[in-house]
Amino acid sequence: MAASGPIESITLRGRRFPVDGEDAGNVSLPGTSNEVKPNGDGSLRLVKGRVAGMIENLNAQIDHERQDLEYLHELRDGGDFFDVSLTYCDGTVYAGSMQLTDDIKEDTKEGTAGITLTGNLEMQG
Known about the structure:
Layout: E1 7-12, E2 15-18, E3 26-28, E4 31-38, E5 44-51, E6 53-61, H1 68-77, E7 82-88, E8 93-100, E9 105-107, E10 112-119, E11 122-123
Antiparallel strand pairs: 1-2, 1-7, 3-6, 4-5, 6-10, 7-8, 8-10, 8-11, 9-10
């Protein structure tokens, strides 16, 4: 029986971040998108495009002693993809090469920072 639940943790270029246990993280795999467009004669055509994988709506725990917030900004500002590993509560792991793509904002009350990553991602093992 499959188990569902929150993301356990995310590892960004070797540094592990626990994730808020109440988050419902969204994960999409890379592949193709489909768009149906009408033609002038009333027929339809399929237009395919490429889409990157994405991890969004995650709030990573921030530890100021480890300078986690600065580390996240360093990754984003580095201008290159880095290794990412995402662990689900049931032990499932997705990994790939990604980059932080949205603003990184710390919620000081919760002790977390919201992160979004885009790039390649696939199930491991």
